[in-house]
Amino acid sequence: MSLKKEVFAGLKWSTLSTIILALVALLKISILTRYLDKADFGLMAMVTFVMGFMNLFNDMGLVSAILHKRGVTKEEYGSLYWLNLFVSFAMFGVLWLVTPFISYFYGEDQLNILIPLLGINLIISGIGQMFRTIEQKNLRFKNISLIEISAAVVSLALAIYLAVDGYGVYSLIYSSLLKFALTNIFYLFLGLKHYGLLLHYKFSETRPFLKIGMYQVGGQIVNYFNRDLDILIIGKLFSPELLGGYSLAKQLVMRPAQILNPIITRVASPTLAKFQDNKEVLKRNYLKLVNIISTINLPAYLGLFIFAPWIVQILYGEGFEDIVSLVRVLSVYMAIRAIANPMGSLVIATGRTDIEFYLNLFVLLVTPICVVIGAQFGIMGAAVGITFSILLMFFPGWKLLIYKMTGATFKEYCKAIFVLKLELLKGKF
User: Its membrane topology, per UniProt (predicted)?
Assistant: First the structure.
């Protein structure tokens, strides 16, 4: 199959999977808000923040390294698998040790149970995530889509059943555990069947991957705090109920990008990597990618901003009117993040995770200041603060990353963003 056919086949399945998964997630939240209170969502936001941070170390950046590196041998895959599995167990041990301190920081005793319970996902992910990466590298998105859709639907059914039965926040925890277990077990069986797994480990074989991956992890850690520091601050300064309302608003505004962006970027990352040796071709295709992302995201977020009161009413029901203003402010924030999202594909394609790390380190100097100052005026202030911080980083992001990697001028970059047209529909990507 030609590269063009592989890309469009991957795009088809990626589109189907992304839309269904996003709709399932949206349906899940919409139903559970009828049975759970804001405090439950606030607790889950705290647990999710901690787990998201731990997952950065659990991955070690190996996903990006495997996608970037060509001609990976079975011996290298074997070494990477066993290293990743060992790290998964180690990260769970670290999480178990630090949980009491996290619970004390937030002043929530329930976290002593919730965090280690959801932390089992760290171990579960270690058994299958590398095989998922191999499937993605080979553009086999049909397998990925079928596995993730099946697991999401079963997980949704369990979450609804437990919520109706009065399990509260545990309905969110147990459904997440089931989803992780199903997906990773399926990836393990699929990987063993198609690729096999050697009982082989040699650290020297993992070193080139770790060199790329460690910069990626460093960049992701900094970027994670840049993106979710608002959750940390609000969780500390305000009640779980207020954090729950903010978290629901943020989940809502993230949904369009979660639906739309992965459709393109999951295929774009391995595709752009094929052009890493030709800077001009890489620039041309990257700008097309930015244009596609902008064309589908900007109208979506404009619609969310305008129709926020009706959307909140339909999805969350009565009692959530107070988050409408948050949804509108955060819509601006997420629109900008959505446009910047293809930078990740560019970093993976070029292997220049070091540049991403230094850029994110610079962002870390700006974001906390804006969020902390804004939080002094309440939750709305925190939302305005994080939105202002991302506006400040628009030009430096182009200069330090996009221009350096592709040579695209600021005018070319802005044109790709604001001159909306679907290059994808012309079959040129």
Answer: Multi-pass membrane protein
Tell me which of 243 and 270 has the higher pLDDT: 243
Percent of the chain with pLDDT over 70: 92
d(CA 149, CA 23): 11
The span from the CA of 132 to the CA of 179, in Å, is 15
State the sign of the Cα–Cα–Cα–Cα dihedral 97, 99, 101, 102.
positive
> How would you label 69-100 residue by residue, b for 16+ Cβ within 10 Å and e otherwise?
eeebeeebbbbbbbbbbebbeebbeebeeebe
230-257 core/surface letters (b: 16 or more CB in 10 A; e: else): bbbbbbeebebebbbbbbbbbbbbbbbb
User: pLDDT tens digits, residue range 148-181?
Assistant: 999 999 999 999 999 999 999 999 999 999 999 9
**Hey, how many other C-beta atoms are within 10 angstroms of the C-beta on 199?**
6
Predicted TM-score of the model (pTM): 0.74
Question: How is residue 330 annotated by DSSP?
Answer: H
In a 10 Å sphere around its CB, with 0-12 CB exposed, 13-18 middle and 19+ buried, how is residue 419 labelled?
exposed
